[in-house]
Amino acid sequence: MNIDEGTIEAIASVLAGAERITVLTGAGLSAESGVPTFRDAQTGLWAKYDPAELATPEALARNPETVTRWYDWRRQLIARCEPNPAHAALAALQRWAEGNRVRVDLVTQNVDGLLQRAGATGVVELHGNIHRWRCAATGRDVPDPPLPFAEYPPRTPEGTLLRPGVVWFGEALPAEALAAASEAASSCDVFLSIGTSAMVYPAAGLLHVAADNGARTVEINAERTPATPLVDIAVTSRAGEVLPRIVDRLSRAV
Ligand code: BV8
Q1: 159 C-beta neighbours (distance < 10 Å), count
Q2: Which band of pLDDT confidence, cut at 50, 70 and 90, is reported for residue 43?
Q3: CA nearest 232: which of 207, 252, 249, 253?
Q4: Which residues pair with residue 193 across a beta bridge?
Q5: Residue nearest to atom 45 of ligand 1 (CA)
Q6: C-alpha distances out from residue 20 to 14, 17, 191, 210, Å
Q7: Cα angle at 37 between 166 and 154, to 5 degrees?
Q8: Which of 30, 37, 42, 126 to mutate to test the pocket of ligand 1 (most atoms within 8 A of CB)?
Q9: Which whole-number Å values give the CA distances from 4 to 86, 137, 228, 253, in the listed order?
């Protein structure tokens, strides 16, 4: 859906008036890089699995081989993907902000690390990172896991199970990341929700925190979500099409 210049202008104007901007991103930000979104119908080998069924500690306990194969398969797929114009636009927004005494906090639910590869800094990873693996027994990060694994489930040299460094359903988010995201949501003038179905908590609650603290809220997503009726400006479009236009307009305005 082609978004009219008036909407681009309106969002750029809201951003131009902000002192602090917080951006929450989801799988839709990486979709145009070729990374399947979390709720896309799983393809090929994984078609018969429900991601929500695999992204749990119970799934690891029940079937460590399937779960670790799935994550290593996703990790290898992501490693072959490149950041797309939406990631680049958010990194550009941070650079614009530095030059205009504005603060931009990028909070992501994604585990792919593509924002960082696009040059974004200080990215708050609410759900961890698929490139990091840790000991399932102790929770300790294993710095250089032997990737790709020779066997599944992979094990540490001590023989304990290795698991991906992501947050599963029923697991607490990293306290530091959640505190940073909550502070960024409660202190911003503008909150952007980009490429997320706004269904998974506590991440989806951040928009409510921002709105309750008086922030202007904007959603950019390919389809309507539970957040759509709540935001000040809702754009139903691809992030890779709209974000570069917004950041370009902003850069020309200020
Ligand atoms: C916790 C990491 C407590 C692993 C993920 C009932 C009510 C409220 C909450 C709950 C409840 N029952 C249970 C809960 C809690 C649960 C939850 O929220 N469940 C939901 C389903 C109801 N949350 C948790 O369990 C969290 N932990 O609460 O712990 C606790 C506290 C203390 C001590 C112990 C426990 C943990 C949640 C994290 C789970 N891990 N992922 C992995 O990736 O494998 S979540 C998973 O969903 C994804 O990783 C992603 O991070 C998250 C959100 O998904 P999205 O990013 O939004 O992706 P999705 O596919 O859904 O949507 C993409 C959107 O993009 C779509 O709308 C699409 O239209 C759009 N799009 C597509 N292309 C584009 C686009 N938009 C723009 N441009 C495009 N090109």
Answers
A1: 7
A2: low
A3: 207
A4: 24, 219
A5: 200
A6: 11, 9, 9, 11
A7: 35
A8: 37
A9: 18, 53, 18, 17
In this structure, what token pair is assigned to residue 55? 């992204």
Cut 0.85: pTM above it: yes
Instruction: Express each pLDDT in 191-202 by its tens digit.
Output: 999 999 999 999
* pLDDT tens per residue across span 156-210: 988 999 999 999 999 999 999 999 999 999 999 999 999 999 999 999 999 999 9
Is 127 part of the annotated catalytic residue set?
yes
Mutation probe of ligand 1 site: the residue of 25, 38, 53 with most atoms within 8 A of C-beta: 38
Give the residue among 253, 250, 252 at the shortest CA–CA distance from 218. Answer: 250
Lookup result for tokens 């505190």: 179
Cβ count near 232 (within 10 Å): 15
Tell me the pLDDT tens digit for each residue of 91-148. 999 999 999 999 999 999 999 999 999 999 999 999 999 999 999 999 999 998 888 8
Tell me how many degrees the CA angle 242-123-207 measures, rounded to the nearest 5. Answer: 60
Atom of ligand 1 lying closest to residue 223 CA = 69
CA of 200 to the centre of ligand 1 (A): 3
**pLDDT, the chain, mean:** 94
Beta-sheet strands, E only, within the chain: 20-25, 103-108, 124-125, 128-135, 162-166, 190-194, 216-221, 233-236
Going from the Cα of 253 to the center of ligand 1, the distance in angstroms, rounded, reads 35
